[in-house]
Amino acid sequence: MLKVGTDEAHRAMLQLVALTVLSSQAGAQMWACLLTEPERAVPSVAAFVAAVVATASAIASAQRATALGL
Length: 70
Prior knowledge:
Number of strands: 0
Order of helices and strands: HHH
Strand content: under 5%
Radius of gyration: 16 Å
Mean pLDDT: 75
Largest sheet: none
Low-confidence stretches: none
Structural class: mainly alpha
Number of helices: 3
Helix content: over 70%
């Protein structure tokens, strides 16, 4: 659990974590999935989660295939 003293310190820590995650390829791709799905007018949170998981799975499959030279 992340514990910091003030709201400003908490905000700064969250920004650091977000920047660290987004600097990785997987984190950046997940962020792209999250930004793309709302454009499709998803009817519920469950449908949104399913769509994000499906998109992330498709990206992971493509990366595996590329890594294997397929």
